[in-house]
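So, does this match?
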Amino acid sequence: MKIFSIITKTFVFLSLLALVACSEEEENAKPSIVLDQTEMTAKTGDTIEVTASVENTGQLGKVVVEKHWDGNPVEGSATEFPAEQISEGTLTYTATLVEEDAEHVVLFAFKAFDTNDNQVDRQDLVVEIELSRRDLLTKYDWLHTEDIETSTGEAGLAESRKDDVFRFRDDSTWTIDFGQNNHELDGLQQYCAWKIDASNPDSVRFIRTYFGFLATEPTKEVFKIDRLNKNEFYISRDFNFGGEVENIQLQFSAQPKSDDFVPYRGVNPAAWADCNPID
């Protein structure tokens, strides 16, 4: 019985030592980060959201999230989360993607630091970024290449129109450089505002307004966007030609923006009325 008592006491003592050791090990464990996702696809203008879980917060000093372009930190992009702000070991990070992000390989580095300000863990979120529709339109100039009658496939753009270049500005106004070859109707419109309506994702609309000759009220045209990427912009709508309605697709090709762009080239710029944004 005495030997059994000694063995029992020894077992209890060793168990207590093990529990204390485990407790100390847990308290001294390095903080680590787990992201709810490590890859995503988004467009410029989107706001991304990521949840990070931080384990072993007992030794956590802070978490820093930093945007990187092509492997290099973006100046001024770091966001710091002190340990006391990380509720129940989780934090939510949000960021809005800008047009310039599409020109780089983008990742967000989540870094954990201990109470001695040593980095002890890092997890990365890689974001594949595409230009939004709006950013695509404003990034390039758009050369009018063809008009197609959609029911027959017949092309009908006048040769004097095939050097017209459209420019869609960030302030939601638009204009045209008529190029070296003027059409007889050039100068009879004052170009005004533009807008993308994506309220119906299955039928995204491009809307533009202009003033006809000496008009004070704008004309609004609503097109269906058939194609929009870094190379092409195709839009279509019904046109009424003397009582006969035809659906025409206007086709444009992306061009690098040029300092040689001259609005209303070859004619006097029209300025008959004030241009207001499209509702």
The two ends are 93 Å apart (CA to CA). The first strand starts at residue 32 and ends at 35. The longest helix spans residues 2-28.
